[in-house]
Write a structure and sequence with these properties.
This protein is α/β, with parallel strands linked by helices and 414 residues long. It contains 17 helices and 14 strands. It is globular.
């Protein structure tokens, strides 16, 4: 048996995001090639120890955050985003696993170190994927991730040393970066040549063929509305506050036009969601803006909500890649994206989308107005985006490249 053990920090179906999508789709491609991929993770936000979801085995293990005095709310905040957890249960199962071909970590810190240690003790290759969580994160964002553990004594440091967590990227057989910006920074920072750029992909068929009328009915939008939307995590990183500000300026400039805005996705920062609601009320946009809870990825509702839009907008403060851009292209939508991180490479300005400087409300408002008033440009950008997806971002191409990297790692190990 050729088992490939994928290890993310968590894998909660109700908290679906880019990392979950990447791991699931890679697993499906590996299954098609006769491999045996499995997901091994913590029980953060998903207490079910073992399940099979869409034919992919998922194993979840007991864990803790090794800090004294954490409240339930602080643990939940760490579960939601970035918590440096410890799972000796996971480590034991990884170490005892038989028939393993590759250990593939999608996490850093203690948990990533545990994956590497198990791989080394079993003399198997260890691959690490960076989903935009180290070299391409602004300092303020990095600080916010660990805010919940601030002021609590950390008793887990010896385990970090035991698992050589700080040396994970130096010792791994391959370091994969989904974003080109992070790839460049990782190559400059790491003193080895085992860094690879492996972008995310998309199953285009899963996002095509949405029912526009059904999507607009679900949102309560009139059929003649000019719809903008961002289907991503509700999180400060995604900067939906900026989008609401720009949209408010657009509505103020043309109050008679039926503009609508959709903000949808799992809420990783409830306080930020409340800021959005407060801003919407202050701008008197309650009838123009719809907040929609998370939907099942690649579901009919997901397709229909995308089909309900005329333009997709991703105004992120930073972004390692931007897999939701691929989903929007696959759904036949033009995109507007901030010119940061992986988005700067992913979207080609004036060809398959429009860029605007991150944080610039006036420029984003201008981009919204431009696409609202130019259906021909919307169609041209959307068509080019579909070509980009078909040419560069199929999961078949991504998984074939990953298999080449796996084989290189195995050859190095022999």
């Amino acid at each position: 048996m050729s088992r490939i053990l994928h290890v993310p920090r968590r894998f909660a179906l109700d908290e679906w995001g880019g990392t979950e999508s990447v791991i699931y789709n890679l697993c499906k491609q590996q299954q098609a090639l006769g491999q045996h991929p499995e997901i091994h993770t913590s029980r953060a936000l998903a207490p079910i120890p073992r399940e099979v979801w869409r034919d992919i085995p998922i194993h979840r293990y007991r864990y803790c955050y090794p800090f004294l005095g954490l409240s339930e709310a602080e643990v939940h905040a760490l579960d939601k985003k970035g918590g440096n957890l410890l799972s000796l249960d996971l480590f034991g199962h990884l170490l005892a696993a038989r028939g393993v071909r590759i250990y593939h970590a999608h996490v850093l810190k203690r948990m990533g170190g545990a994956v590497l240690t198990a791989a080394r003790l079993r003399n198997k290759p260890c691959v690490v994927t960076l989903h935009g969580n180290i070299f391409d994160v602004p300092a303020a964002e990095a600080a916010s991730i660990v805010e919940a553990q601030a002021g609590h004594f950390e008793w887990g440091k010896p385990f970090g040393a035991l698992f050589r967590s700080r040396h994970l990227l130096d010792d791994a057989d391959a370091v994969l970066c989904v974003g080109f910006s992070e790839y460049e920074k990782a190559r400059a920072a790491l003193a080895h040549d085992r860094v690879y750029h492996l972008p995310n992909g998309v199953t285009a068929a899963a996002f095509a063929g949405g029912d526009r009328a059904a999507g607009r009915h679900a949102l309560g939008w009139p059929q003649d509305a000019i719809g903008f939307g961002c289907l991503s995590r509700i999180d400060p990183q995604k900067n939906q506050l900026l989008l609401v500000e720009a949209f408010a300026a657009l509505v103020a400039a043309e109050p008679q036009r039926p503009f609508r805005l959709l903000l949808g996705g799992p809420v990783t920062a409830p306080a930020y969601q409340q800021e959005l609601l407060d801003l919407i009320r202050r701008c008197q946009l309650e009838s123009h803006v719809t907040l929609h809870p998370a939907v099942v990825a690649e579901s009919a509702l997901h397709r229909n909500l995308l089909a309900a839009l005329d333009t997709f907008v991703l105004p992120s403060r930073h972004e390692p890649f931007g897999i939701v851009i691929l989903e929007a292209w696959a759904a036949g939508l033009p995109v507007i994206a901030s010119n940061v991180g992986g988005l700067a490479k992913l979207v080609t300005h004036e060809h398959d989308g429009l860029h605007f400087p991150a944080g610039d409300t006036a420029d984003l408002t201008a981009a919204l107005a431009r696409l609202a008033n130019d259906p021909g440009l919307r169609r041209a950008l959307a068509a080019a985006g579909q070509v980009t997806v078909a040419r560069d971002y199929t999961w078949q191409a991504v998984s074939a490249r990953l298999e080449d990297i796996y084989q290189t790692c195995e050859a190095r190990h022999r």
